[in-house]
Amino acid sequence: MRIVAPASPPSREEVARGVELLTSWGLRVELGEHVFDQWGYMAGRDEDRVLDLNAAFRDPGVRAVIAARGGKGAYRIVDDLDTDALRRDPKSVVGFSDITHLHLAVWSRCRLAGLHGPFAKSRDTYTGPASAESLRRALMTTDPVTLHRDASEATADVTVDGTATGILMGGNLSAIRTEAGAGLPSLQGAILFLEHQRGTGLGEVDRALTQLTRSRALDGLRGVALGQFLGFDRDADDPTLGGWGIRDVLHDRLAALGVPVLGGLPAGHGNHPPTIPLGTRATIDTASGTLTVQPAVV
Predict the structure, then answer these.
(1) Which pLDDT belongs to residue 133?
(2) pLDDT tens digit sequence for 170-218
(3) What's the pLDDT score for residue 176?
(4) Residues 101, 116, 251, 269: which is the catalytic one?
(5) Distance CA 66, CA 64 (A)
(6) Which of 207, 202, 211 is nearest to 184 (CA)?
(7) Helix (H, G, I), strand (E, B), or coil: what is residue 226?
């Protein structure tokens, strides 16, 4: 197992906790050479961050690569990933948020499944025992992963009835939008998983989904699985928004696709995130409120 920092710089304390957790599972954990570098708001210069990634991809002793943190910067290095090395020696990349850029690039170029999962840290308010166990099972077993709709999530009421099966792709909405026209793989026949954390408000979600629709990136989708959209709680009370909240924007944009939509999945930027395979076969069932995903490891 190799911990690398493709995006923003992690703290030494977080990485130490991650090493302790992974070692407790019997794994041998190594750190990339530049994990603790910093260059502006990124974990080192572009060439050094991608150097660590490619070194892990090329090392036959490394069986999985886990990101120390998301944040900013992974989008700057996707063109220089050694996906030929991954094709020769497949191994899972673990992470989410800005790491969505890596998941999309790896799938696009070598059809390799990854894991939308927590970063290398544990025992804090963000990653607790259940989240750690979800990561362990996704990395070290071949069990399918099932997520259930949580009625308390902001997206829980965003539903277009039906069932759908396809390859699960996606992750962070901003990252997916950024890759449109710059390497976003075809989503035909896919179940698209989306999660997001508020930046500038409802308009950013509307713009992202509209751009993906207008660019035809969403043509051929079989279904949409919605995770957490955090930070939009008070929008419905804002008189300047006409009574709309995040569920209204999502339903307005996604219902027009004419495919099943399952909202309310407790996965994204919230505390205690589960680990979800990306790039494997998945089924959404709005009647049972479930997303079931086949494992990323064999």
Answers:
(1) 94
(2) 999 999 999 998 989 999 999 999 999 988 899 999 999 999 999 999 9
(3) 98
(4) 269
(5) 7
(6) 211
(7) strand
Q: Residue 211 corresponds to which tokens in the numbers above?
A: 């751009």
Q: Which among 107, 44, 63, 105 has a CA at the least distance from the CA of 80?
A: 105
Q: Which two tokens stand for residue 260?
A: 């099943």
Residue whose entry in the numeric block shows the structure tokens 């064999």: 298
288: annotated active-site residue: no
Any residues with CB less than 8 A from the CB of 168 and at least 6 apart, and which? 190, 191, 193, 225, 276, 277, 278, 279, 280, 281, 282, 291, 293
In the set 34, 92, 195, 196, the catalytic residue is 195
Tokens of 22: 């992974």
The Cα–Cα gap between 274 and 121 comes to 14
Q: Rounded to the nearest 10 degrees, how much is the dihedral formed by the CA atoms of 97, 103, 105, 111?
A: -160
| Catalytic residue, candidates 8, 92, 97, 174 | 97
Strands in 261-262's sheet, in edge-to-edge order, are 145-148, 290-293, 281-285, 163-172, 190-197, 223-230, 261-262
Question: Is 195 part of the annotated catalytic residue set?
Answer: yes
pTM, rounded to two decimals: 0.95
Residues ≥6 apart with Cβ < 8 Å to 152: none
The residues, any chain, with a CB within 8 Å of residue 177's CB and separated by 6 or more, are: 207, 208, 211, 212
Q: What's the whole-number mean pLDDT along residues 53-65?
A: 98
* pLDDT value for 124: 67
Q: Please indicate whether residue 97 is annotated as part of the active site.
A: yes
Among the listed residues 195, 186, 177, the one whose alpha carbon sits nearest the alpha carbon of residue 262: 195
C-alpha to C-alpha distances, 191 to 163, 187, 197, 249, nearest whole angstrom: 11, 8, 20, 20
**Pairing of β 281-285 and β 290-293:** antiparallel
Is the Cβ–Cβ distance between 260 and 287 less than 8 Å? no
